Design the sequence.
């Protein structure tokens, strides 16, 4: 468990990049995602594009310190929102190219959704880590940088 805690920021990057890749795939190759949208839902292609957009946005948000907590909450909601598609795939044995047609392999996605939710939950609290992963140059600011900026503002 200590190994996981010490690599929290690496795991943030892995989650963010993974979810962004999946989001891009929603646009690049939407057919497999459309195939698993439950038939009770309207406009499957639009739902795939919407979920892909929010996956990309959530991944970027996780790596943007000022909004990373909100992005984590958004990803949790997204993981819950797409869960019916995973259930639909497992229950109805929907075959997707490249994934073996095995009920157990499809069913493993169901508990994995809980892992994704827990992983997102880990980032819902503000980070005090000066090494928080960030796509914004100079973020997060260290305490030393903050003090230096305050002194600079006080001089003006």
Sequence:
């Amino acid at each position: 468990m200590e190994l996981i805690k010490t690599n929290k920021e690496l795991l943030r990057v892995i989650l963010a990049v993974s979810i962004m890749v999946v989001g891009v795939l929603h646009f690049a190759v939407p057919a497999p995602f459309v195939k698993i949208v439950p038939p009770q839902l309207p406009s499957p292609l639009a739902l795939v594009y919407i979920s892909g957009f929010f996956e990309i946005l959530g991944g970027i948000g996780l790596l943007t310190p000022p909004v990373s907590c909100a992005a984590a909450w958004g990803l949790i909601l997204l993981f819950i929102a797409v869960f019916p598609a995973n259930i639909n795939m497992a229950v109805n044995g929907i075959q997707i190219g490249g994934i073996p047609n095995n009920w157990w392999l499809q069913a493993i996605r169901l508990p994995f959704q809980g892992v994704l939710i827990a992983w997102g939950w880990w980032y819902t609290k503000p980070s005090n880590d000066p090494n928080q992963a960030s796509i914004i140059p100079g973020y997060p600011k260290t305490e030393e940088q903050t003090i230096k900026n305050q002194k600079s503002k006080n001089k003006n």
Notes: The first helix runs from residue 2 to 6. The mean pLDDT is 88. The radius of gyration is 19 Å. Residues 34 and 45 are 6 Å apart (CA to CA).
